[in-house]
Write a structure and sequence with these properties.
The protein is an alpha+beta fold. It has 2 domains: 61 residues, no CATH class; 43 residues, no CATH class. The protein is 15% helix and 38% strand. It has 1 helix and 7 strands, in the order αβββββββ. A 3-stranded antiparallel β-sheet has the order 3-4-7, with no helix packed on it. Strand 1 and strand 2 form a beta hairpin. The relative contact order is 0.14.
């Protein structure tokens, strides 16, 4: 017996499978997931036959198992400023090192430490 998924339930089963396939391929192309992780599509057909065994109600469901999105990591410099606790994302610069930027329009010198402080 050969059954075409696009013919079942007026094409709804084929559509469900195609939606699952799109989810999987988008996940494969997502640079935030592990490239070599396995992904799966499960198409589940549940048959509930009647007492006479001549007709069965069929429910079709699908599920996908995708690669999880990878976490993002960073570093924080943590310290105190008097009685306040401060934290700042470390931007690959020596803590306390001063950077000078000159705004060309105003020729104004702006000094920063390269760290964004969060209180």
């Amino acid at each position: 017996m050969n059954i075409n998924l696009d013919k079942i339930a007026e094409g709804a089963v084929g559509e469900k499978f195609n939606n699952a396939l799109k989810e999987v391929t988008k996940n494969i192309l997502d640079p935030n997931t592990k490239a070599t992780a396995k992904r799966t599509i499960t198409l589940k057909l549940t048959f509930e036959p009647g007492e006479d065994r001549e007709i069965a109600d069929v429910t079709v469901d699908y599920s996908t198992k995708l690669a999880p999105v990878k976490g993002v990591s960073t570093r924080f410099v943590i310290g105190t400023d008097g009685s306040d606790v401060i934290a700042s994302e470390y931007k690959k610069q020596i803590p306390g090192q001063t950077v000078m930027k000159v705004e060309k329009e105003k020729e104004e010198k702006i000094y920063t430490t390269g760290l964004q402080l969060v209180k």
